[in-house]
């Protein structure tokens, strides 16, 4: 049983309205020096037996886990 | 300008229907030995000047970023 962690984040030039909403909420709640919030997703994949090779995982990331037009992904472990 | 990364994940005993859907989709796409997928969120907070102390950040995490009933959070850096 092997595990892979994949982090998916919006590209830096893509607007993050959800992050903006969180940033404003934090400011309203008293966190005055908050400047910016960006929100991403993290996937924990568990495999029966051995995990696939990195290339295969990358393929599935760009097909399903991330939208390569607006998101970057990073395979962490 | 300092940054803090916060990861929010569902507690292990909480069902993750979104993760289940991704798991099934990966299997249908040919990733046969996928066993389980869990999906979390990651927040990148940027502060003007110094970041608040850890206790303050924890307070805002449990008030806004995470739902402590079903989610755990981890302040990473």
Envelope shape of chain A: elongated
Question: What is the helix/strand order of chain A?
Answer: EHEHE
Can you tell me the CATH superfamily of chain A?
Answer: Phosphoribosylformylglycinamidine synthase subunit PurS
Of all chain pairs, the largest interface belongs to:
A-B, 33 and 33 residues
Q: Please, how many helices of chain A?
A: 2
Summarize the main sheet of chain A. Answer: 3 strands, antiparallel
The total beta strand count of chain A reads 3
Quickly count the domains of chain A. Answer: 1
Structural class determined from secondary elements of chain A: alpha+beta
Strand content of chain A: 35-45%
* Spans of at least 5 consecutive residues with low confidence of chain A: none
Helix content of chain A: 25-40%
What name is given to the CATH topology of chain A? Mth169, Chain: A
Mean pLDDT of chain A: 96
Lateral arrangement of strands in the main beta sheet of chain A: 2-1-3
Give Rg of chain A in angstroms.
16 Å
The level 1 CATH classification of chain A is Alpha Beta
General description of the model:
Two copies of one chain form a homodimer. Chain A is of the alpha+beta class and 77 residues long. Chain A has one domain: Phosphoribosylformylglycinamidine synthase subunit PurS (Mth169, Chain: A, 2-Layer Sandwich), CATH 3.30.1280.10. Chain A is 31% helix and 36% strand. The first copy, chain A, is built from two helices and three strands, in the order βαβαβ. The first copy, chain A, has helices at residues 17-28, 54-65; strands at residues 2-10, 34-47, 71-75. Chain A has a three-stranded antiparallel sheet. The radius of gyration of chain A is 16 Å and the shape is elongated.
